[in-house]
Every structure is written in C-alpha cells, then in structure tokens.
Design a protein that fits this description.
- The complex is a heterodimer of chains A (about 1000) and B (about 140).
- In chain A, strand 25 and strand 26 form a beta hairpin.
- Chain A is built from twelve helices and 48 strands.
- The longest helix of chain A is centred in the N-terminal third of the chain and has 33 residues.
- In chain B, a hairpin with a 4-residue loop joins strand 7 and strand 8.
- The chains are: A mainly beta (about 1000), B alpha+beta (about 140).
- Chains A and B meet through strand 38, strand 39, strand 41, strand 42 and strand 43 of A and helix 1 and strand 6 of B.
Chain lengths: ~1000, ~140
C-alpha cells in the first residue's frame, strides 16, 4: 500500500515538474523573445506620454514574471516625471529607480475590473513645489476641486478597482509651498497601501512603517526628522467625503495614538464632521515637549521635564470657522517632573487624572474635572481636586486643595517690590469656590473660601514688621457658616496657637502664648460702614511694648464685639468683657501691676462729637485687686488693694476703693457724677466721696493732684519751680510748681481721718469736708485735734494763676497752750511777739487771707487779717519787753507776774499789725495797751496806766525795734477807754470795732 | 494782825504825804496842761473838710494803687507784688470831713479790717493822708 502511494506521488511530482518546466519555458520565451524591453519600452513610453501631462522619461520597461510570480508585471527602470519651468529647485517631479506594476489583465479584459495586484516604487523621490503665487509643479496632475477623478468615474468603465498592494520603498518626499511658507520633507519613506474601490466606496489600509518627517512653517521647525509610523485602516465614501477609521495607529517618534471613528467633509455646509475616539498611552513628556517648536518654549527657557502622559477621549462634532467639536478627554499624568528657569524649584512626583469636557465654545457644556492632581517640590507637596467650569466666560473654581508647603520655596513668586520674607511650613486644606472675576475684584463677599492650616515654625518679615509663630492652627471660612444671629456672616476665623510674636523694630513688639481666639465678622474692608465684629479670646499670656509703654497680662480671657448702633448705623457700639491675672504695665518710668482685673463695659461711639469723652460713652464695671502703681512723679508706689467701680457715661460709682500711698491709706467710696455733662461743658464735674483713712500724708495728696485740669494761662509766665513740703522733713515729698486746684469740678470729700501728718505736725480725728470746686479748694470747718489743742480750721485755697494764689484761713484754737500755739504756728510770734511773754492756756481765733506767689511767699500788700485772743490767769514770762516794763514800773514781782485776764483784738493790714487797745491787769497796775507792730519788727506801742500806785495816770510810749527800744513817758491816751461815762467817740469806735471783729470771728466757730 | 494794821497805816501816811507835798506842783501842772490843751484846741481847724467827690478815681503811690468809686466802694492793689487791677482787693470807704475810713472786707468769712486815716490834702490831682501812727501816704491821680 505504501509503495503504491509512493508510486502515485512520484507520478504526480514528475507530472507537476514537467508542467512547471513547460510553463517556465513558455514564460521565458515570452519574456525574452516576445516581450523584450526593446519592444515594451516604446509602447509604455508612448502610453505615458499619452496619459501623463508631464514629460516622462523611462529608461527601460520589461515584463516581469518571476519577481511577480505567479502574475506578469511591468517594470520600469529609472522612471522620471519632469515639470520644468516652475521655479522648483529641481525639474524632477517624480523619480523612481524602479516601478513595478501588476494588473489582473484577465479581470480587466473580461469584467473591466481594475485589479492592481501590486505597485511598487523603489528608491524614488517626489518633489512637490508651489511658488509664491500658488502655481505648483504638479498642478496638472490634480483635478479641479470638487471634480471626481476621471479614472474613478463611471466613465472610465471600471466596474471594480482593487489596489491590493501599493508599496513605496525608500521614497524621499519634499513639499515646498512658498505661498503658505510651508516646507515639508519625508525621507526614507516605506509604506504599504492597499485598498479597493467599488461603488463609491474606497476601503483600504495605509501602513507607513518608516518615515522621517520634517516640517517647517514660516521659518519655524515644527518637526525635525520625526519618526512617523502609520497603520491606518480606512474606508472612504467618496461621494460624502467621509473617512471612517477603525483602530488606526499613528505614531510620531514612537508616541502612538489610536484612532477610531469618522471624519466627513461636508461640502454643503463647508465644515467637517468629526466623531473620533482616540487613545494614547504612556507618552513620555520629554518626547512630547521635544515636538513643541522652540519658539513656543522660548519664554520658559530650557525645560527639563519628564513623566508619562496617557489619554483617551472623544472628539465629536463640527469643525468650521466658528465651531469646534466637543472634546471629552481624560488625561492621566504620572511620575511627572518639570523644571525650567522661571520655576524656582523642580516639580516632581506629579500625577493627575483630569477630565476635560469642552466644545471650546459653550460654558454650559465645558468643564474640567480634576479628579486629582498632585505635585511635590523639594520641600513641599500639594494635592488638589475639584471642578473648573465656565471656561469661556468667567471661570469658576470649585477646588479642594491640600498643601504641605515650606513657604521659603514660594517667596520668589511674590513681586520683588513687596519686601516680604516668609519662612516656615503651612500644612492644611483650603476649599475654594469662586470665579475669576470675583478673585480679580476681591469680591470676598461672594466667594467661598474655607480651610484649615497649621503653621509650623512660621515667620514673616514684611518691610520691618516681623511675625512668627511656633505652631498655629487656623481655621477660617468665608462666608461664616455658623448660625449666629449677629451680622457676622462674612467670615469667621479660629486660631489656636502655642505662641505668636510680632514686632516692628523701633515701634512695637508683642508676644502671646497659648492663644485661643475665635472671631466672626462682617466685611471689614468696607470702611464706609461700621463693621460687625465678635471675638472671644483666651490667652495664656500676653506681652506687648510700644515706645516706652510695656504691658504684660496673664490669662487674659473674655470677648469683645463691635457693631453699629441699632437704628444709627453710623455709630459704634462695642462691648468688652475682660478678666486677667497678673497685669503688669510700664509707661516710661511708671509701673503698674494688678493681681486680678475684671472689666465689663459697653461702649457707644458718637462720631458726630469732637470731644473724646462725648465720642465714647462707656458703661461698665471694674473690679481690681491688689494693684500697685509706681509713677515717675512719685517716689513711692500707689497700692490699690481693692477697687470695685461701676461707671456709665455720666457717673462713676466707686463701691469699694482702697489706696495706699507710702504711709498714707485711703478708703474711698462715692460717686463722681456729671462726667458726660462736664465733658460737654454743660455742668461741673461733681463728686461726693467718703474718705476714710487711718493715716494721711497731706503733702503726698497735694502732689498727687497738683495741676490736674489747669489750662495753660498766658499770664502764667513764671518758670516752674520746685516746691517742697513745708515740713522739709522728706526731700522726696517735693513736687514741681505750686499746687493748682482743678477747674471745672465740684468734688466733695467727706473726710474721716484718724491721723494726718504734714511734715512734723500731726493731727488726729480729722472730721470735715474737703471740697474742690472749680478752682477752689475748701476745707470746710474741719475739726481736728493736735497735741496743743482742739482746732477748727476753715481754709480756702484758690489758684487763679501760678503766681497769684489765694489762701484764706479761719482758724480757731480752743483751750490752747500758748507756747504750743507759737510752736505750731511760728508766724503768730511775728504777728504778736508779746505772746512769747505769756504762759498758760487761752483761746485763739484768727482769720487771715493773703495772696501768695508761686513760691508760696506772702504778697504782703495783699495780707489782711483779724484776730482775737483771750486768756485768763496767764503767767507773764520773763520776756524781754516785760522785763523792761516791770523794772521801769517797779513791779513787786519782777520775775513772774500773773495776768488775770487778757483780751486782745488785732488786725493785720499789709505789713502792719494794729493792736486795738486792750486792758491788762497785772501786779498793782491796770493798763491799757495798744499800738502797732510792723513786720520789720519795729514797734509803736502806747501803754496807758490807768491804775497804779501813783496818784496820776501815766502813759508810756514804746517804740523802736527790738534792738533799740525807746520808752518815753507820755500822756495816757487810753485813760478813759474803760470808763464808759468818759469815753470819747474815738474810743467808742475802737471798742465797737473790737466787738465786731471778735463776733465776726466767733460766728464761724462750730459748736 | 498788828503787822498788817501797821502796814496799812504806813501806806495811808505815805499817800497823804505824797498828796500834801505834790499838791501845789500838781495844781500848777494841771493848769498849764489845761491852758496848753485849750490853745491846741483853738488852733485846730474845726471846719476842715474835703470834698469826697474828689476822691473818686484811680490814685497811685509808687507801685501802690487805690481806686475809689463814688458809691463808697473801692479797691487797692500793688503791682510790686504782681497783682493786677482785676485782681485788686475790695474795700468800702467814707470820708467825713478829714477822716477817711477804709473797711477792708475779707473774702472768706466776711471779717473786717478797718483802717482810719486823716486826709491832709485832697485835690483833683493829689491825695495825702496819714494814719494814727503818723505814717503818711501821698497819691497822685492816674488817668485810666
């Protein structure tokens, strides 16, 4: 069986070989004998001349069989098509070393079907040229626009055209169009084209396996030897000029795009309908950038970029002069990196997934959806997501961005003219919802911005203002999402920080620790309306300084708010509730400290007023504990153990108030009223206070209030001088200038002072009223006790100007030791030196007034006074005057004499003291004494001896001065003074005046 | 008791002795004094008086000024103490014949400081007076 099979096979192969040999033999004869090049070349050349509008040159044409087996083909060697005289660089339009064509001659003969089984062009070149006027060297080859190619028209008579294989091998193509400044060249083109045409339908495939393409437009190279690969299956419906692609492959420098869909040239509407799906995968960004013309990147300098881009999408719609197709594109970037000159740092680790949907025309159908995009710098990273729409009108951004930024990296983005340095890290998230116009116009009231940021080791230097924080968490939102009833919908911010420091060199500095601040507000930028602002704060510690002012607070806690007054939108209303511990403040050389401070206040601002107190009307409550104030003007601190005070624009109500100054202590309660009216000038500032003190240093009080409220008077031309405590006991008690009583106020101080000191003098149980009334200081019937006596003092001190100070005294000493009286008031010795000669107790009344200069020197021309002295059982001391008198009058007891009674009235006028004649009984004498005593210590006394051992009445004139007294016997002037029946008019008048003087003095004595 | 009686008796004798021996001298002294007194009284110009209308006006004595108003008020100031006229101190005055009385009223408490002077000259341009202690003052009228 096997042998039989072998035999049949042997016969088959022998038969087949014989047939082949016969066929080859016949073909060889046909090729080499019948269709020789010498016969074919003229025929083909003739046909070429007939059908090709340009001159052609064919070196040789032969018939192929073996190379086109099993079909016969025609091969042309060194084919050239010439188009001379067009201005082209070369006359050669087309040139090929070899052209081979195989046509199905049977189909053409039987069915008039044009079946091109093979067309191969090898080692050729195609040179297309259009001059600047639009004339080209290939114009005769192309039909008029819109015309159907003749060979494809029905007139050609081909029932079916089938291009099975068109192959281009090593074709160099150049296209120069001077009119459009386009210069394109393709070298080493290798392509295969196949297709078929039947009934208006052209189907085919273009497979360009290799081409190096260069494109230059207007001197700019758009491609430079780019490696182009195509594999495009297509179907062309010629009548509709519709191209359909399916899985077409286009690659430039190995950047491939897959295309599917259709493109139709609508000649009626003169537009192009597209419906293309494309997909590109893993493009290297660097390769893509390399395709971008250099001029496009000129502004960016050298770009160093990498990464992988992938995309797929749909381009669908009409392309015309006015329309762009709808693009639905997904773009994915990974491992991105870019660095160029203007970017101060490289961006790395870029990745993104972006969906672009746009018809490039209509806002409603155009948007960019950033599913995610992130990038990193050497020290920062950010990530964003969201949507951008209204791309072609007012772009709208709805984005959420997370960033972890080292601010140092971004400082170079700021304009150079902004002198700003920023350091530190910001980590947080920002939500933005705004349009470009809103951002441009800073329409924050319409924008939505919110986020949370953590500032770490952050510092900022703007000009000379420096700010830094260790760690600060800042939450903010525009608008304010809370449901607060206040008109603070614009924004809110919440700050939690471990530390904040800010300063401007030479101006201010401030630092805070453990900060918790919450704020919500209306739009503060609108300065034409009063804003609404609400802020709560809880701060661990606060320090601030400006110029010579420093303040330190521990745990300041509270809130404040500002809003327009309801119904009066142009006026402020503010509310502050504040408490803190360990308050310390310094102003220059003055210091203050407070252990605990609580303040609640409502403030209403009336900006129509000019005066400060009228502009700011304040209600509230102040509670202060353990305050300590050291003022530069005082040598001792002012201690404030406690103050509780309510205040409103009109009234300050001190409910509790204790102050300690050096050795003085004060408990002050009462009301200060008419504050607002006073500031308006409508009334006096009135005060009614109770002052309780265990010990008061009067000199300190005077220095405390000296000069308050005194306006600069042009008459005050005296230089300020240093006035010291009259006691001179303590140099630190000095203060500058005379004490000027405040004007425009009426303050009543009901004093209850256990002990008061004025230098070395001490008074106790001081009861009475001290009143300061519009430039007048009045001690009204002040009663007190001194070691010498119980006293009553009414004093008035008025300060019209610094060198003209009024002092009036109404002084009553009851049951006073005369020696102590002289000790207490040495000036009385000057007024009435004879008192030095008495010992015992008496009563003393004096009213005196004078003006003083700024050094408190008496202006003697203004001195007025009246006094009354009463004494009983006085002992005449061994005084100089009366020693002489006792010797002259031969007193029985010249060492000591008792004066039964003494009643003296005298007046003071300028430098003269007039002693009204008074009766003095001593020893064996009754005498009436009167005269004048001058401030220069000169005397002019007269003693009328009205009762003596002598039978006559004598008078003695005593005059001169203490150094040189002169005694002279004279007639007794006052002999009848105490004899009513004998008095004359003058004597009666003197007695009457004495009575009037005394009664006027006594009427002021309080019972 | 006896000693006391003797002392009183001696005192009476002494008094009588003085009265007896000095009676004549005393009589002569008294007569002389009376005569002198009568002479002095007779020489005094009892009818001297000055027209108080001449007093109204502003008078100056060195740095001391006085201004009298016809209604009996007046004031005084001394510019050597840096006191201006609007800061002057008030008084009331009367002029009876030659006796000029100034009652200076203190600002506080209504206390009075009276001053008495005897006018020695009063003319439209000059005012002179002296006090009881012989201190004289001389003023000239000052135009406002």
């Amino acid at each position: 069986m096997i042998d039989k099979m072998k035999r049949y096979l042997k016969i088959f192969f022998i038969t087949l070989t014989s047939l082949l040999l016969l066929f080859v033999t016949a073909s060889t004869i046909l090729l080499w004998i019948v269709f020789t090049p010498e016969r074919l070349t003229p025929i083909v050349s003739g046909q070429a001349e007939k059908h090709i509008p340009y001159r052609t040159e064919i070196e040789e044409v032969d018939l192929t069989f073996f190379s086109t087996f099993p079909r016969f083909g025609i091969r042309m060697i060194n084919f050239a098509m010439l188009s001379p005289g067009t201005g082209a660089p070369t006359d050669t339009l087309l040139k090929a070393d070899e052209l081979v064509g195989v046509i199905d001659a049977v189909a053409l003969w039987k069915n008039r079907d044009l079946i091109i089984n093979k067309f191969i062009l090898s080692n050729g070149s195609l040179n297309l040229f259009t001059d600047i006027t639009g004339n080209s060297n290939y114009g005769l080859l192309i039909a008029e626009p819109g015309a159907v190619p003749e060979e494809l028209s029905e007139d050609t008579g081909f029932g079916f055209v089938d291009l099975k294989n068109l192959e281009l091998k090593n074709l160099n193509l150049s296209y120069t169009d001077l009119s459009s400044k386009l210069n394109t060249s393709v070298t080493s083109l290798a392509a295969k084209i196949s297709g078929s045409y039947r009934e208006d339908n052209l189907k085919g495939r273009l497979d360009l396996s290799n081409a190096s393409i260069s494109v230059e437009y207007d001197g700019e190279k758009y491609m430079d030897h780019a490696l182009l690969k195509l594999n495009i299956p297509f179907e062309l419906l010629l009548s509709r000029q519709l191209v359909q692609l399916k899985d077409a492959f286009v690659s430039v420098n190995d950047m491939a795009v897959k295309l599917s869909g259709s493109i139709e040239n609508n000649t009626i509407h003169k537009n192009i309908n597209t419906d293309i799906i494309f997909e590109l995968n893993s493009w290297q960004v660097s390769d893509a950038i390399a395709l971008i013309p250099a001029s496009f990147l000129e502004g960016l300098g050298k770009i160093d970029a990498s990464g992988i881009i992938s995309s797929r999408g749909i381009i669908k719609g009409v392309i015309s002069d006015t329309l762009v197709p709808l693009m639905d594109i997904n773009l994915i970037l990974s491992d991105g990196y870019i660095r160029y000159v203007d970017l101060p740092f490289p961006l790395s680790e870029m990745s993104g997934d972006i969906h672009i949907f746009s018809d490039m025309n209509n806002d409603t159908t155009s948007w960019i959806n950033i599913r995610h995009f992130e990038a990193s710098t050497p020290n920062s990273a950010f990530r964003t997501r969201g949507k951008v729409d209204h791309l072609y009108s007012d772009m709208h951004y709805d984005l959420i961005t997370d960033a972890n930024v080292l601010t140092d990296e971004f400082i170079s983005f700021l304009p150079r003219d902004i002198n700003l340095e920023v350091n530190g890290r910001i980590n947080g998230q920002v939500k933005t919802d705004f349009t470009m116009s809103q951002a441009t116009n800073m329409a924050l009231d319409n924008m939505k911005l919110s986020g949370s940021a953590l500032l770490s080791n952050f510092s900022m230097l703007y000009d000379s203002i420096y700010f830094e924080t260790g760690h600060s968490q800042i939450d903010f939102a525009l608008p304010n999402p809370s449901t607060s009833e206040r008109n603070t919908k614009f924004a809110y911010a919440k700050i939690a920080s471990d530390s904040m420091t800010a300063f401007k060199t030479g101006h201010f500095s401030t630092s805070m620790k453990n900060i918790h601040v919450f704020m919500e507000m209306s739009d503060l930028r609108d300065t034409t309306v009063i804003p609404d602002l609400f802020c709560t704060f809880n701060i661990g510690s606060f320090r601030a300084g400006m110029d010579t002012i420093n303040i330190a607070l521990d745990q300041p806690l509270g809130y404040f708010s500002v809003s327009p007054v309801p119904g009066m939108p142009e006026q402020y209303a503010a509310r502050l509730a504040y408490s803190s511990y360990d308050v310390a403040a310094q102003i220059g050389q003055s210091f203050a400290s407070i252990d605990e401070l609580t303040l609640r206040t409502d403030i209403v601002n009336d900006n129509t007023r000019e005066d400060f107190f009228l502009q700011w009307q304040v209600n509230g409550f102040l509670d202060l504990s353990n305050g300590n104030i050291s003022l530069s003007a005082f040598s001792h601190p002012l201690e404030i153990p406690d103050i509780k005070m309510r205040f409103d624009p009109e009234t300050f109500n001190i409910q509790e108030g204790t102050i300690v100054i050096d050795q003085s202590d004060f408990g002050l309660t009462g009301i200060l009223d008419n504050v607002l009216s006073w500031s308006r000038g409508d009334s006096l500032l009135r005060g009614d206070f109770n002052l309780v003190s265990r010990n008061t240093d009067i000199a300190r009080l005077m220095s405390l209030t000296s000069g308050f409220g005194t306006e600069d008077d042009p008459v005050n031309r005296e230089e300020q001088v240093v006035i010291k405590n009259p006691s001179q006991s303590n140099d630190n008690n000095s203060f500058t200038g005379p004490y000027m009583v405040p004007h425009g106020i009426d303050i009543l101080l009901r004093a209850n002072i256990k002990q008061a000191t004025m230098g070395a003098d001490t008074a106790s149980n001081i009861l009475g009223n001290v009143r300061v009334n519009d430039g007048i200081l009045l001690l009204d019937a002040l009663t007190f006790t001194t070691p010498a006596a119980d006293m009553q003092l009414t004093a008035m001190y008025r300060t019209p100007r610094k060198n003209h100070l009024y002092l009036g005294l109404d002084y009553h000493l009851l049951d006073v030791e005369i020696s102590r009286l002289l000790q207490m008031i040495p000036d009385i010795d000057t007024l009435m030196p004879m008192l030095r000669s008495f010992e015992g107790t008496g009563e003393f009344h004096i009213a005196v007034e004078t003006y003083l200069d700024s050094l408190y020197n008496i202006k003697k021309s203004t001195l007025r006074g009246a006094s009354s002295i009463r004494g009983k059982d006085l002992v005449l001391m061994d005084g100089e005057t009366f020693s002489e008198i006792s010797r002259s009058l031969r007193f029985r007891n010249r060492d000591q004499n008792r004066v039964d009674s003494l009643s003296v009235e005298f007046t003071i006028f300028r430098e003269e003291i007039d002693i009204y004649p008074f009766l003095m009984v001593m020893d064996r004498y009754r005498a009436v004494v009167g005269g004048r005593h001058n401030f220069d210590l000169s005397f002019d006394y007269h003693i009328s001896l009205i009762e003596s051992p002598l039978p006559i009445r004598l008078g003695i004139d005593i005059n001169g001065d203490m150094e040189k007294l002169q005694y002279r016997l004279a007639s007794p002037r006052y002999a009848e003074l105490y004899r009513p029946v004998s008095r004359r008019v003058v004597e009666n008048r003197q007695l009457e005046l004495r009575r009037i003087i005394r009664e006027a003095l006594l009427q002021n004595v309080r019972e | 008791m006896i000693n006391k009686f003797e002392a009183v008796k001696q005192q009476v004798i002494n008094s009588l002795f003085i009265s007896f021996t000095g009676m004549r001298k005393l009589l002569i002294f008294l007569m002389t004094t009376t005569l002198v007194a009568i002479m002095f009284v007779s020489c005094e110009k009892e009818d001297d008086f000055f027209d108080e209308a001449l007093l109204a006006g502003k008078w100056q004595s060195g740095t001391l000024f006085e201004r009298y108003f016809a209604n009996g008020n007046g004031y005084t100031w001394d510019i050597s103490d840096d006191v201006q006229e609007d800061e002057a101190q008030n008084f009331t005055w009367t002029l009876v014949k030659t006796e000029l009385t100034q009652i200076h009223i203190m600002e506080m408490g209504g206390n009075l400081v009276p001053r008495f002077y005897t006018v020695t000259e009063l003319s439209p341009t000059r005012l002179r007076y002296r006090d009881d202690f012989g201190k004289s003052y001389s003023f000239t009228r000052v135009d406002d």
